[in-house]
Design a protein that fits this description.
Number of domains: 2
Bound molecules: NADP nicotinamide-adenine-dinucleotide phosphate
Order of helices and strands: EEEHEEEEEHEHEHEHEHEHEHEHE
Largest sheet: 7 strands, mixed
Helix content: 25-40%
Distance between the termini: 13 Å
Length: 304
């Protein structure tokens, strides 16, 4: 089967298509023929070598942590999935590929109404948003400041928070302000003067804050306007979390949460646009786009 591997850490050009033997589903495992896979910032961080101490990396190393596709082989002892089922799943570093084998508990059924591409991209960002908002214990009528609100996690966090009756102030580049308004957030530009701009929008301060940028500006402004470090979460900087005494959340993944997010998107309660589609042979270009930014919505790998 065709997949994408890197032979060393480095720039996007280290990504190349390779042929590997077809993986086989062992006991408790399921093999999926992938129709689409999501691209996420962590893929680029792993490619650059930033997760060397976290993951067991061995070259040539595959990449990609979420996918949607069709079950084509089921191992012994698996209940609940059979060949032909349309599923959404997660995996560590293996989804940029024609096929993947995962434990059955990494899969959930794809809602029929969800297109393949959308199904492939909602899981990782959706559960990050869902878990972070749960950790912040937001209540209707409260105000949350979300840094990086126009990105994948941010877009869903804004919509989930608004659905709970929470007011959202979201930082984004100017080009994404109309987009944030369309999601129900009040946009604010990041950069110098951010604290004052937030105070003008929320003179009483904000109740909680979610950082998706890992920038010192975002976290120091959050501390200033929130005042309660126990209600500030970052998903993007362990060192700054430690420095400022706030919470760094790491990804906890479960098929049950992916299912909740996918169903919410399928029902139209939240949307996540696809910004660009890439073929397997274009993963280097896809990573360049991911690192350059400036797009609105998710980047997705599509397979025939
Ligand atoms: N710990 C976890 O469990 C977990 C899970 C998922 C993601 N993450 C992390 O969370 C972060 C966000 O992920 P994502 O998938 O949402 O990324 P994304 O889709 O690339 O979005 C990031 C957004 O940040 C905005 N941005 C860039 N610099 C900014 C700044 N200085 N201030 C405010 N906004 C800024 C950009 O928006 P504009 O174009 O509008 O500037 C961009 O859309 C990444 O670091 C990712 O690795 C962590």
């Amino acid at each position: 089967m065709k997949t994408v591997v890197m032979d060393s850490y480095g720039d996007p050009e280290v990504l190349r298509v390779a042929d590997l033997p077809e993986p086989q589903a062992g006991a408790g495992q399921v093999r999926v023929r992938i129709k689409a896979a999501g691209l996420n910032p962590i893929d680029a961080k792993i490619r650059r070598g930033e997760f060397d101490a976290v993951y067991d990396i061995s070259f040539p190393q595959q990449l990609g942590n979420e996918f949607a596709g069709v079950v084509d082989q089921v191992g012994d002892g698996v209940d609940g999935f059979s060949a032909g089922d349309e599923v959404i799943g997660f995996v560590d570093m293996a989804a940029y590929a024609e096929q993947v084998v995962v434990p059955a508990e990494n899969l959930t059924m794809k809602p029929a109404a969800l297109p393949w591409e959308t199904a492939a991209v909602v899981g990782a960002v959706g559960q990050a948003a869902f878990n972070a908002l749960a950790r912040l214990e937001l209540k209707a009528g409260e105000t949350v400041l979300i840094h990086g609100a126009s990105g994948g996690v941010g877009s869903l966090a804004v919509q989930f928070a608004r659905a709970r009756g929470v007011n959202v102030i979201g930082t984004a580049g100017e080009g994404n302000h109309d987009y944030l308004r369309s999601l129900g957030a009040t946009p604010v530009a990041y950069g110098e003067g951010l604290e004052q701009r937030v105070r003008e929008l929320a003179p009483q301060g904000v109740d909680a804050s979610l950082d998706l940028t890992g920038s010192g500006e975002a976290i120091s402004v959050s501390v200033a306007v929130t005042g309660d470090r126990s209600r500030i979460v970052t998903l993007a900087s362990p060192p700054l979390a430690q420095q400022y005494g706030i919470t760094m959340m790491f990804g906890t993944r479960s098929a049950a949460t992916v299912a909740q997010v996918a169903q919410a998107v399928a029902r139209g309660e939240a949307t996540l646009p696809i910004a660009r589609r890439f073929a397997l042979a274009a993963m280097a270009e896809a990573h360049q786009q991911m690192e350059a930014g400036g797009h609105q919505g998710k980047l997705v790998l599509t397979l025939d």
